[in-house]
Write a structure and sequence with these properties.
Layout lengths: L8 E6 L4 H11 L7 E6 L2 H11 L2 E7 L2 H13 L1 H5 L3 E7 L4 H9 L4 E4 L4 H30 L10 H19 L1
Parallel strand pairs: 1-2, 1-3, 3-4, 4-5
Helix pairs in contact: 1-6
Length: 180
Amino acid sequence: MKNSSRPVNHFVILEPVSEIFHVALDLLKKQKGQESLEIIYCSTPEQAANEIREASPCVVGFSIEKMESAATAINFMRSIADKVDAKEIKVIAVNKVSTPALTKLLDKVKLSVVVTEPVPTRTLMFKLLLQIKAVELVRKQLELKAKQEERISFNGSRKSEKDEDQDAIRFSLGGRQGKD
């Protein structure tokens, strides 16, 4: 088993996506260090939302090829807004429809990156890679937060072993001071 200690990075794709997106994903899979990348293709926004909830933190990608698909994309983003707001997912969209109204609308739904076609394949691959790196950082932050929560003692206060040792010293000093 190669790289079994490395966590799997999930990339959820809401299809259909543009050809350039497929090519960039194929190049990305071949990059050194991306052996653990798992690409999950979803045919419906509901399926994608379920996969995101199971796989988060993860990267999500979709394309807007026609103005009609923009409404689906906006509704999809609203359905996963809680994960976006919690910064557990990064969302990248490849947009073929470049209108000021759509651009303004996409800004409101908090996409991490919007790439307007035409775009060079390597540029898109680089942007995808940056989002994966950002998700790896989110995963590490969540792990640190979980470890910190484990340290909370039973009464709800945070104490390190050093603090407990100092309490013991204060208690023993307090006992001596009372006898003097």
